[in-house]
Amino acid sequence: MARFRDDQLVRYARQMVLPGVGGTGQERLLGARVLVRAGGGAAARAAATYLAAAGVGRLVLEGAPGAGAFGWGDELRGLNPDVQVELRAAGAGAGEATAEAAGAFAAILDFSATADVPDSPAAALHGAFAAAEALKRILQIGRPAAPDALAEA
Amino acid sequence: MARVLIVGVGGVGAPAALALADAGVTALGLCDPDVVDASNLHRQVLYRTEDVGRAKVDAAAERLAALAPRLRVERLRARLEADSAGELVARWDVVIEGTDAFAAKFAASDAAVRAGVGLVSGSIVGLDATIVTVAPGGRPCYRCVFEEPPAGADGATCAQAGVLGAAAGVVGALAAAEALRLLGGGAAGRAGAVLRYDVGAGTVRRRAPRGRADCPICGKAPVAARDTDRDGGERMAISVHIPTPLRKYTAGKGEVAASGATVGQVLDDLEKNHPGIKERLCDDSGAVRRFVNIFANDEDIRAMQNLDTPVKDGDELSIVPAIAGGEL
Questions:
Q1: What residues of chain B, 213 to 242, have a C-beta less than 8 Å from chain A?
Q2: Are B162 and A16 contacting, i.e. CB atoms less than 8 angstroms apart?
């Protein structure tokens, strides 16, 4: 029973109790590496925030042209000490997307198309929704959303 | 110039506050009696590890001030109570309610309708989320949609059923967007809505509930009679969406097939294959329980012929119980 520290059992209690998650699911999250593309935008920031809060062990945040420098790698670490954050410039490690099949990333979230959307509920919605879908995929619960899932939102 | 009151700065209210911080809102009121608990951190992303033990309104106000220096934040460290809710909500342009308590949900809606203030109420338990948007004056209001708090175990909390943090974030962002829609005025600002987010399926559905003529809060509006001349007699396949609290009857399935020519027949067929489920939906007299809503193809059956509402092959029935659980 030494799989989790006491503080982790409390921090993740509400998601570990979800059907199909449990200790196995939480271990999958803590062991997962996730790439967030165009990581400087508002939607990407929301997504990375929820991934970090859920205990995704390694977050790779890739910049977008014009998105500027990240001011929030430390923010994410402050949110959850279990998370390692790696920042990299756009285009770096471009070969890694194709390496996903080989297991480089448990999920890739690409916000290149929405990087210019200013902070707003719409950006927060798209970011949180993409994060929820990535968590479902890593946890192997539910089924993937359709591309137009937010059409009625 | 918009002023938004957030009641319950938890799984729903905290992301709603974050989503509104940069959306042109001038003032946010934060109403919550609680302190930050370590079990909040996986979803209430306004709070950091070192905030554990601090009043939520204090930690949230400081964080919002750092993110949006021009935003005015008012701290109200209190629980929303029915007898003081009227005074509280009247000072704001719109209210976002995201508590885990049914009493607060009904009290906030009743008070908002009487004060002529719009309200958005958000809940998530397990993998089911519901957002109810009440336009100023109601018709419908939260009490039209869910007549009274559930009496039994269907009022599940997220401590029992769990919650995915990012999904709570989706609910908060949807609530924030609905609040801005109400503030925008015009026809859109007068339209109520029920949004249902099925996290497992990754779907968000918007429906337009009807007001109830006999609603004690916003009633007197006549309910339009529905054209109901269909007369089906055959047994047909209907897809029924089952909410999380009832999935123990369906072996965990969120969607099952059932047959019948009316909603009532479909529920009887459901009971045959999933014994015990009908008792959760209907009372001893056979009527749909007051805190349960059933939608046939996105229309509230109460606005049609209730259990006699005809259904046909390929139709969808959605069961939407009132849920609370923004936080524990």
A1: none
A2: yes
